[in-house]
Design goal:
By secondary structure, the protein is an all-alpha fold. Helix content is 65%, strand content 2%. It has a 3-stranded antiparallel sheet. Keywords: Membrane, Transmembrane, Transmembrane helix.
Length: 602
């Protein structure tokens, strides 16, 4: 665990007030404002996505010597930006073998600094758990994430019965889907920073006064899991018992808000428990869950609604959520490394009677108001002032918007053209499901080796061993952005009654693969391109994706009815085609754009 740099109040700056903030020394001065950025990262498919936002301390140390911002410095800094996490979620600090304090009880300068003794072999380190237990926890967390995302789309199967029972329109019923997804996008902007802080506590006497008495401490992951899923379960109950559409809509938004808190934390648990060389398989399992969940929803909902009432869709979700909550309470421990080190420091102070033992997290101090304020402002700064962030966020938002629009389009295409029942329409989403799984499994087989070749080529040209560039994450996005319009054009012009129904489903599978390839590159590119502001970049992406996904279903059915199935999908294909060149442009000219950026690594 690296030590947090000492800073006086006079050196605290926001780090983006003017263009001079691009130099590393200025970023070191703004480190207090961006402490929260250290704890947020990204999950991706396999080892190619196991990197996150950076170690601010190492960046500050690199800048201390006044080194010029050369390519080698950029590569060195890129190498140090390691942490693990989940989609839009927290990560642990990277406790790898290169960390100087992991295997010792402190340093010569800080003999009472608490760290992992023996590295991953420390009994309190979650990486010392048995492999079976770590995998069990991974499966529980993944199933819980799948439950949250499945809840968004399972609701779409209830439209027909809701319209009859509540005497409302399809558009109003669709608001239940849009509000849930909007809650998923809104929650991390406000709730995520709150999950990092705790109440002030009184510092013990003695040398432990180095622990600030007004310091805000991390809650950790386990309390967020339990609180989030408890409220997720509670807000499901009024959905199941609703007697009017107003109750349904309000409960759906609150349910999405509660579920978003879980998703913002869950992925980091995988990185907490597995070292980098072990991370590929468990991260792939977790990554699949939030992407395939929306495709499973219509499949389950179709069979339920066809055989019973819409309320059983929510009864099933209540049972599922209750089971997941019980598994979380019983079997998922706290895994967040900084919190565990704090607990270890507390135990050592109690056992030894020496108040000098301290953990790095106990030296952090932050304002709740400022944390939430910057959490809400920075993502919009990146969207407004960073063309790379804006363009890639719009691309990912359009893709998710089209995916959620399909929840209204598929019933039109397959029920009207091919006479599918509700249950059979749910099965038609298996094309997307299979395509996304294919995209996830091929990512480490295709794109990770390609990135390794690019890194090796850079090394051969004199780069630092193991060094990389953010643009090396974009080949998958380039391929995915080209694949998506092809899939949409193919889907559009095979939606005729005389064309066998399997053909548009095959094109939907190709679309799903392209979407996953796009996301796998975009997420990791944003993290490596904006290492000091990775959390804000991912929050901006999540916000844009969620609100596009909330908006598209509201006009999708009308567009398909007015334009026809073929031309409606063609419009979507042209929209995706217009966004397709941007990943290649950033791959080609990304270094120049980053060099002129106020926020990106040079």
């Amino acid at each position: 665990m690296t030590n947090m740099p000492r800073r006086s109040e006079s050196t605290v700056r926001d780090g983006q007030e003017d263009g001079s903030s691009v130099d590393l020394e200025k970023r070191r001065e703004s480190a207090l404002d961006i402490d929260q950025e250290k704890t947020i990262g990204l999950s991706g498919a396999g080892d190619a996505q196991s990197r996150g936002d950076g170690d601010i301390t190492s960046a500050a140390q690199s800048s201390h010597g006044g080194l010029p911002r050369t390519k080698s410095l950029r590569l060195s800094k890129s190498k140090s930006h390691r942490s693990y996490g989940g989609e839009d979620g927290y990560t642990c600090f990277n406790e790898d073998d290169s960390s100087p304090n992991i295997s010792s009880g402190g340093t010569a300068d800080e003999p009472f600094l608490v760290s992992w003794e023996g590295g991953d072999a420390d009994p309190m380190n979650p990486r010392s758990m048995t492999n079976a237990r770590r995998w069990a926890i991974t499966l529980i967390v993944s199933a819980s994430s799948l439950c949250v995302t499945c809840t968004s789309s399972l609701y779409t199967s209830t439209y027909g019965q809701l319209i009859d029972e509540f005497h409302t329109s399809r558009l109003v019923c669709t608001l239940g889907l849009s509000l849930f997804v909007a809650g998923l996008g809104t929650g991390p902007m406000v709730l995520s920073p709150l999950s990092e802080v705790d109440h002030p506590k009184t510092a013990p006497v003695g040398r432990s006064l180095r622990v600030p008495t007004d310091g805000m401490q991390f809650f950790g992951r386990r309390p967020i899991y339990i609180c989030s899923f408890t409220f997720f379960l509670i807000f499901m109950i009024p959905c199941a018992l609703a007697r009017n559409v107003q109750t349904m809509l309000i409960a759906r938004f609150l349910d999405g808000l509660a579920g978003s808190a879980f998703l913002s934390v869950a992925g980091g648990t995988v990185g907490d428990m597995f070292a980098k060389h072990e991370l590929s398989a468990p991260m792939m399992v977790y990554t699949a869950s939030p992407f395939v969940g929306p495709e499973i929803g219509p499949l389950l909902g179709g069979f339920i609604v066809e055989n019973t009432t819409w309320r059983w869709c929510f009864y099933l979700l209540i049972i599922w959520s209750g089971l997941q909550l019980a598994l979380i309470v019983l079997f998922v421990p706290e895994t967040y490394h900084p919190v565990l080190l704090r607990n270890k420091a507390i135990r050592l102070r109690e056992e030894t009677g020496n108040p000098a033992h301290w953990a790095p997290i106990e030296r952090m101090s932050r304002s709740i108001t400022k944390t939430v304020l910057w959490s809400c402002i920075r993502p919009f700064q990146l969207l407004f002032f960073e063309p790379m962030c804006l363009s890639l966020c719009i691309l990912s938002a359009v893709l998710l918007g089209i995916l959620y629009l399909f929840f209204g389009a598929f019933p039109l295409v397959f029920q009207n053209n091919h006479g599918f029942t509700i249950a059979q329409t749910g099965i038609s989403f298996m094309g997307l499901f299979v395509g996304m799984l294919l995209g996830i499994t091929t990512d480490p087989l295709i794109w990770a080796p390609m990135r390794s070749r690019l890194v090796a080529k850079l090394e051969a040209q004199g780069g630092e061993p193991g060094g990389s560039e953010p643009e090396y994450r974009l080949p998958s996005t380039i391929a995915g952005a080209a694949l998506v319009p092809v899939a949409l054009f193919g889907f559009a012009w095979t939606t005729f009654p005389q064309v066998h129904w399997i053909v548009p489903i095959i094109f939907s599978a190709i679309f799903g693969t392209g979407v996953i390839w796009c996301y796998s590159g975009i997420f990791t590119f944003l993290v490596e391109c904006y290492p000091l502001y990775a959390a804000s970049a991912l929050a901006a992406n999540s916000f844009a994706r969620s609100y596009f996904a909330a908006a598209f279903p509201l006009f999708g059915v009308q567009m398909y009815n007015n334009l026809g199935y073929q031309w409606a999908t063609t419009v979507l294909a042209f929209l995706a085609l217009a966004m397709a060149p941007f990943p290649y442009l950033f791959y080609r000219w990304g270094p120049r754009l980053r060099g002129n950026s106020r926020f990106a690594s040079a």
